């Protein structure tokens, strides 16, 4: 085991920042096509271009932005739109709790900035650095590096999607790539039998409850699915984990 | 919806999303870190994503469609297999679109 002496030079803010940028770049491969599709779909759903583009920096959450566009297209009331966006983004509470301990010493402006930039991909790329890397004073710059790289990629992809959106014929069925993105995220999010149960129950409820107005089936299905998962874990069915 | 109404809805959704991300980072000491909350949150991604995906594959024009002509169902099932096997978002999207296009070409 290597002994780290006090004299060892710890990576400074610049090195941490570019380390984060480098860790994030491969993930842009998946994010940029998603951003393009969001831009295209936002227009198709009836949102004006300014709303599609500004949503990417106001909300900054891929899946929830697609859902926002779909609900807007279905003339759902704003309160239901916001609630559904909140439920789709609720998983970020987990990330927030996960990184909070590493950021607790930072001033409020840093906490606000890093919270705004906290997404699936930025969190995933920075987690290993925080968990396994040296506890330097400037390691939050790594998370800033992953977050701002994703942010830039997402904004540019959105604008590109809005610009090329009008040129893509509907028979290409490119809207299906959004469902495919959700399928990939879903499969990657499942690690235990009780999570499979939560997903299956939520899927069944979502299909059965289609007649509900304002696409409330999203909220109902999520709630029933979560309840099923919690019940299964209470009964010990979650033992399939790892 | 008017432009102002839309902008206000966007801002509300943005503020809500920020507060969700800020929760434990900014106000961790005031929030409960109970086991129960952790258990509930653990099932959020699977339940929410499944709720969004299932109707995309199974519902056509508002009703359950399980017949063989539902090409998105076949492409989606293939995508699930690809995702399980590859653990890759890119491969899942590319494979699923490839299957859908192939089926549309074969049957169209």
Tell me about this structure.
Chain A is mainly α and 242 residues long. Chain A has helices spanning 13-24, 28-44, 49-58, 62-73, 78-89, 92-103, 108-116, 120-132, 140-165, 176-189, 193-208, 217-234. In chain A, α4 (62-73) runs antiparallel to α5, α6 (92-103) packs parallel to α8 and α11 packs antiparallel against α12 (217-234). The longest helix of chain A has 26 residues, at 140-165. In chain B, strands 1-2 form a two-stranded antiparallel ribbon. Chain B has 108 residues and is mainly alpha-helical. The two termini of chain B are 38 Å apart. The radius of gyration of chain B is 20 Å and the shape is extended. Classes of the chains: A mainly alpha (242), B mainly alpha (108). The interface between A and B is large, with 89 and 67 residues.
Summarize the structure.
The complex is a heterodimer of chains A (242) and B (108). With 242 residues, chain A is an all-alpha fold.
Radius of gyration of chain B: 20 Å
Counting DSSP H or I runs of 4 or more residues, the number of helices of chain A is: 12
- Oligomeric status: heterodimer
Work out the helicity level of chain B: over 70%
Give the count of helical stretches of chain B: 5
Q: State the distance separating the first and last CA atoms of chain A.
A: 28 Å
Mass-distribution shape of chain A:
globular
Which structural class do you get from the secondary structure elements of chain B?
mainly alpha
Described by strand count, sense and barrel closure, the largest sheet of chain B is: 2 strands, antiparallel
From the alpha carbons, calculate the radius of gyration of chain A and give it in angstroms: 20 Å
What is the helix fraction of residues of chain A, given as a range? over 70%
| Main interface: chain pair and counts | A-B, 89 and 67 residues
Extract low-pLDDT stretches of chain A. Answer: none
Tell me what portion of residues of chain B adopts beta-strand conformation.
Answer: under 5%
Mean pLDDT of chain B: 92
């Amino acid at each position: 085991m290597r002994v780290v002496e006090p004299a060892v030079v710890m990576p400074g803010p610049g090195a941490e920042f570019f380390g984060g940028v480098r860790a994030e770049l491969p993930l842009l491969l998946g994010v940029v096509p998603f951003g393009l599709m969001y831009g295209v779909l936002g227009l198709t759903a009836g949102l004006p271009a300014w709303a599609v583009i500004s949503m990417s920096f106001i909300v900054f959450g891929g899946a929830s932005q697609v859902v926002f566009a779909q609900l807007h297209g279905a003339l759902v009331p704003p309160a239901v739109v916001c609630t559904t966006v909140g439920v789709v983004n609720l998983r970020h509470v987990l990330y927030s709790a996960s990184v909070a301990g590493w950021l607790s010493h930072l001033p409020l402006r840093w906490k606000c900035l890093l919270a705004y930039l906290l997404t699936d991909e930025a969190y995933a790329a920075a987690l290993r650095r925080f968990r396994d890397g040296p506890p330097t004073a400037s390691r939050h710059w790594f998370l800033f590096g992953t977050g701002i790289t994703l942010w830039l990629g997402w904004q540019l992809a959105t604008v590109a999607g809005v610009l090329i959106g009008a040129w893509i014929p509907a028979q290409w069925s490119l809207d299906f790539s959004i469902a495919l993105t959700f399928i990939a995220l879903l499969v990657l999010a499942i690690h235990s039998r009780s999570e499979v149960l939560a997903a299956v129950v939520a899927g069944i409820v979502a299909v059965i409850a289609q007649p509900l107005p304002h696409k409330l089936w999203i909220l109902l299905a999520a709630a029933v699915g979560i309840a099923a998962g919690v019940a299964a874990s209470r009964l010990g069915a979650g033992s399939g984990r790892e | 919806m008017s432009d102002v109404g839309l902008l206000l809805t966007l801002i509300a959704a943005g503020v809500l999303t920020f507060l969700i991300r800020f929760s434990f980072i900014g106000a961790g000491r005031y929030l409960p870190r109970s086991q129960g909350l952790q258990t509930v949150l653990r099932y959020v991604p699977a339940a929410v994503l499944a709720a969004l995906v299932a109707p995309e594959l199974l519902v056509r024009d508002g009703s359950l469609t399980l017949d063989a002509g539902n090409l998105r169902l076949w492409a989606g099932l293939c995508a699930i297999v690809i995702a399980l096997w590859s653990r890759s978002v890119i491969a899942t999207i590319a494979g699923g679109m490839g299957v859908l296009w192939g089926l549309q070409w074969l049957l169209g």
